[in-house]
Amino acid sequence: MLESQLRQIFAGVVWTHKIQECQADIYLEKHNKMETLRIALSAITTSGICTVVFIDENWLKILTALISVVSLFINSYFKVYDLDALQKHHKRSAIDLLELREVLIAILCDIKLDKYNEDTLMQKRDEILKKQMDIYKECLDASSEAVTRASEKLKGRQDNTYSDEEIDSFLPLLARKKNN
Fold it and tell me: What are the extents of the domains in the chain?
């Protein structure tokens, strides 16, 4: 019973780790794209302003003004949303979950080696649950895109119920329930 519960906790940690990792990737991609766009628009705006000094064309003034407005919007977006900090927070959560995942793997392997009596295993389980909840309290919400990416990476997961085969696919051979 305790092994089964720890396996379910393990699967949930694997799932949440992947979601946090995917959300960090999404923020990094978005930050990089917007930063590149911001630099390009600033260069175009500067070129447009310099050109308007020498060429007095209304269409050029309007185009430069529109590009400047888009550049202002992106700069304002960066002031409101710190994508770099959000990415780092999700990455830190993913690393904390990765550490917990490795602890769970070690415990599940030790169970197969009959290392724990029932009381010790219950104590380990309670420590794991506390650590898991502490990490979850610090996790930021993830987007549906992150969940979709995580699901694709973990082969089409649909809910938080995991079959033995699914959990076994995440575990080393010795820790698998069905050791073929």
Answer: 2-175
